[in-house]
Design brief:
The complex is a heterotrimer, with 1 copy of chain A (about 250 residues) and 2 copies of chain B (about 180 residues). Chain A is mainly alpha-helical and about 250 residues long. Chain A folds into 2 domains: about 110 residues, no CATH class; about 100 residues, Structural maintenance of chromosome 1. Chain E (Arc Repressor Mutant, subunit A, Orthogonal Bundle). In chain A, helix 3 runs antiparallel to helix 4. Chain B has about 180 residues and is α+β, with helices and mostly antiparallel strands. Chain B has 2 domains: about 80 residues, Winged helix-like DNA-binding domain superfamily/Winged helix DNA-binding domain (Arc Repressor Mutant, subunit A, Orthogonal Bundle); about 80 residues, Arc Repressor Mutant, subunit A. Chain B is about 45% helix and about 15% strand. In chain B, strands 1-3-2 form a 3-stranded antiparallel beta sheet. In chain B, strands 4-6-5 form a 3-stranded antiparallel beta sheet. The longest helix of chain B is centred in the first third of the chain and has 18 residues. The N and C termini of chain B lie far apart (about 70 Å). The chains are: A mainly alpha (about 250), B alpha+beta (about 180). At the A-C interface, strand 1 and helix 6 of A face helix 1, strand 3, helix 5, helix 6 and helix 8 of C. Strand 1 of chain A pairs parallel with strand 3 of chain C, so a sheet runs across the interface.
Chain lengths: ~250, ~180, ~180
């Protein structure tokens, strides 16, 4: 039959411009198949399977779709149908089950879906051409809630900063010994008044590093001596210092 | 405009998303349904008759003010707003199937589309266009997908039945039957 | 409305931020400055005279359509618009410092506030309230931050000098770090 000849023709033809296609142009093997059927202008109910199969294989070879299992699976299916078509028909024509029937059903189903895609595409394009109200700031995800800010809040913040702001430090590096005994004295004084204290009671906001270190070492020393217990309920929580029974007795 | 129409305008202007009619009703608990409908009519008509750059659109079960499409190009050229990205063909095909056959499982979609659709389903789900609406029978009780209100919004549809019915589609692939 | 006023309305509606006059001019390169000003006037007047739920406002060096404040309560009550979020105290303090002392580097902010401000700067930057405005002298040429037009917009200020001067505040902010 001429179908074999057709295969040779297509295979030996230098790929025409139309053959240089991107995989992205097709959404799957059925899409490619439908495109071929349209290009070849053949009847979907009477697909010249050998010719279409040859075209299909040729295209996916051109596309170097070795990795695309979906296309290869379809190619195998086409070749199997082609083989079935070549089998001699022993029975009468009426009893013959067209091996293409299942493929035709799938193509029609796919074609119907493509019609819906056209409808959706038009609707989506129409919507895309109209802008909705945009929020500030523009977020790719759902719009972030806008901020509630007032000038008085901002000014109050300025005031707050000024209260806690230290003078811009001039970094004169003076060697300064860590004063552990001094820190222990302070902790003892505090624990004499209160059974429980917190880290922030001992270390004032904006304390110098040497003060922090002295207090820490002093605290550890006192804990070792059993004068107090140190506890932290959660990671990063304020450290609690608890006057110990031993300390109380002393 | 009537006070109710002005209130609706303010609310619709403030929202980046369509507002369902029930939520609009919450704006003025004393307004009747009829008054609300009349005010929406009034607002929409005002935009149309008076000649505005925006219009009132009913979609996704709610109402939204949108710019008229004739200004899109100028706005985009001036880089004041950008159109959202188009959906890929794969995403559109999968959406089309789900829209028509929901609830629908992944295996059926793959059977019809002839490709694996795992990543497409994931991205459609992330964009809020589809959601899991149940589980099918059979092995593994597969997840079944359906479209969401955002789907309607994306395509500016009021209801799913604005899509052509399946039997209205012309499965007209029989171009010219060719003699073999 | 004139075609230009309609175009302006569409653009102002679609934009995520106030649009400076120069950018509005890009919408219609053939429109003269006078025509643009007239169209803005027309749009603003239309909203005012015709009785709309929105108004045209000039702020942050640009133009924006905003809902009229008398409708805010009803809209918030109906919970249609996203509830505004508040800035944390840390963010507010950092923002205040930057507003008054810009351009300002991270090290100086940390020195004054006594805490590390990396994440706060990041979130203010994401919110669009501050931006990098240059690089300082000295080691590592630190990034310097300043406030943005969005900052002005949040506080409904036209210019930075509408902020009370530092010496008008109860406690005066030192304008300059002490020279070393």
């Amino acid at each position: 039959m001429t179908e074999t000849a057709a295969y040779v023709d297509y295979a030996t033809d230098a790929a025409p411009a139309a053959f240089v296609i991107e995989l992205a142009e097709f959404s799957g093997p059925l899409d490619l198949l439908l495109t071929l059927i349209r290009e070849e202008q053949v009847d979907i109910y009477d697909i010249p399977i050998a010719r279409i199969a040859a075209q299909f294989v040729l295209r996916i070879r051109t596309l170097q779709l070795n990795e695309a299992a979906d296309y290869l699976e379809m190619a195998a299916r086409l070749l199997r149908i082609k083989a079935q078509m070549l089998l001699p028909r022993t029975d009468g024509e009426e009893a013959w089950d067209d091996p293409r029937a299942e493929l035709v059903r799938r193509l029609l189903e796919y074609q119907q879906m493509r019609e819906v895609v056209d409808v959706l595409e038009r609707a989506g394009e129409d919507r895309r051409n109209r802008f909705a109200r945009a929020y500030i700031p523009q977020a790719p995800a759902p719009p972030e809630a806008p901020l509630a800010l007032s000038l008085s809040e901002l000014l109050a913040a300025v005031d707050r900063i000024l209260r806690i702001a230290r003078d811009p430090a001039i970094h004169d590096v003076i060697p300064r010994a860590i004063d552990v005994p001094g820190a222990i004295t302070i902790i003892r004084e505090l624990l004499a008044i209160r059974a429980r204290a917190r880290w922030t009671d001992l270390v004032p906001y904006g304390a110098e590093p040497w003060q922090v270190l002295s207090t820490l070492l002093g605290l550890l020393e006192m804990a070792k001596l059993g004068e107090c217990r140190v506890a932290q309920p959660r990671p990063f929580a304020n450290v609690e210092i608890i006057r110990d029974a031993a300390g109380e007795a002393a | 405009m009537t006070p109710l129409a002005k209130l609706l305008e303010a609310a619709l202007f403030a929202s980046a998303r369509p507002i369902p009619t029930e939520e609009l009703a919450a704006l003025d608990p004393e307004a009747s349904k009829a008054a609300l409908a009349a005010a929406l009519d009034e607002l929409g008509e005002h935009y149309d008759v008076d000649g505005h750059g925006v219009e009132l659109v009913e979609l996704g079960g709610g109402w939204q003010i949108l710019t008229r499409s004739e200004y899109t190009e100028a706005i985009e050229r001036a880089q004041l707003a950008a159109r959202p990205a188009r959906l890929s063909a794969a995403a559109l095909e999968t959406l089309a199937l789900i829209a028509y056959r929901q609830p629908l499982g992944r295996a059926e979609i793959e059977e019809i589309r002839g490709v694996s659709v795992g990543s497409v389903l994931k991205s459609l789900h992330e964009r809020g266009l589809i959601d899991v609406v149940g589980r099918g029978e059979g092995m593994g009780r597969p997840l079944l997908y359906g479209t969401t209100p955002i789907f309607l919004e994306y395509f500016a549809l009021r209801h799913l039945d604005e899509l052509p019915r399946a039997d209205e589609l012309a499965v007209a692939l029989r171009a010219e039957p060719r003699a073999i």
